[in-house]
Specification:
The chain has 95 residues and is mostly beta strands. It has one helix at 84-87; strands at residues 2-3, 10-20, 23-30, 38-44. It has 1 helix and 4 strands; from the N terminus they run ββββα. It is flat. Residues 55-95 are annotated as: Disordered.
Length: 95
Amino acid sequence: MMHCPHCDGRSHGRTSTRLSPTYREATYICQNIACGHVFVVGMEAIRTLRPSALPNPEVKLPIAPPRAKGTPANDNNEPVQLPPAANDTVRIEAG
């Protein structure tokens, strides 16, 4: 499932074509009948998190460095910015 880029409605994959060992294109159809957008999505393997036990010699994917324990899983390694309310300390007063 993917959201339609136009109406943000649910879209479902209908067909998929493998173009290489690491790249595939899929056709999606928006389920919002008022929108009806049909679009193609490209999916690509971009890095290895755990090497394959049956490696294909034709596939050359970079191996991602291991993540340090307790670090966020965001791809850009930037600190996660929380909304201001999430950073506030909540005080509960007995009354």
